[in-house]
Amino acid sequence: SYEMIQPPSVSVSPGQTARITCSADALSDQYAYWYQQKPGQAPVMLIYKDSKKPSGIPERFSGSTSGTTVTLTIIGVQAEDEADYYCQSTESSGAWVFGGGTKLTVL
Amino acid sequence: EVHLVESGGGLVRPGGSLRLSCAASEINFSIYAMCWVRQAPGKGLEWVSGITNSGNGTDYADSVKGRFTISRDNSKNMLYLQMNSLRAEDTAVYYCTVQGLYWGQGSLVTVS
Fold first, then answer.
1. CB atoms within 10 A of CB A90
2. Which of A38, A69, B15, B61 is 20 to 30 A from A102 in CA distance terms?
3. Is the pLDDT of residue A25 over 90?
């Protein structure tokens, strides 16, 4: 299986824009998904198929892709956005692959 | 609202077995592929196993292949994970999920 590389941590001040990247060769032809996980809670899907959002996800969250890198952008970060964020994609077999996770700290 | 509830976790000795269950409600269960994802204490998410909507196709992470078996009973809206030959490194919270969109609250498995 392949690796999906995320930065371990990102820090931003409230109201600023946070960008979390995820890189993997497979992302050039496989969709990416993003999840938010807060301590003691199950993950929540933020983005599916690179840039689509499930219902109920705030507008400030968006996903984009460029080649083998996908990016989760949070515009106007709020204190409640402090959490771990994971990218995920799939292998040709259908098996899922997760990135190592990025801890977003809101300063 | 879709509801997933895992059960069956607990403390088990190395080499032992456990069977996790995931009860699904308010969802047309039989049309969705399902997965198990785990999270070791303080670590990231790890995909464990997946099963097609019919149950005819299954896949496993290399770390559990040959030891874990995923199955489902569409008549009961239930997903299962039979875990044999458990190791300390299998200690984790195990989540069932519907295509990543819906998740249970997790079931803690401790192998010690």
1. 16
2. B61
3. no
pLDDT of residue B4: 98
Whether residue A1 is predicted with pLDDT greater than 80 in this model: the reply is no
A100: closest CA of chain B, how far (Å):
6
Query: Cα–Cα distances in Å, from B16 out to A91, B65, B94?
Result: 31, 16, 17
Q: Do B44 and A88 touch (CB under 8 A)?
A: no
pLDDT digits (tens, 9 = 90+) for A63-81: 999 999 999 999 999 999 9
**Is B45's CB within 8 Å of A86's CB?**
yes
What pLDDT sits at residue B96?
98
CB neighbour burial string for B27-43, b if at least 16 within 10 angstroms, e if fewer: eebeebbbbbbbbeeee
Interface touch B50/A96, C-beta < 8 Å:
yes
Closest by CA position to A71, among listed A55, A92, A47: A47
For residue B50, list chain A residues with Cβ-Cβ distance below 8 A: 94-96
CB A51 within 8 A of CB A64: yes
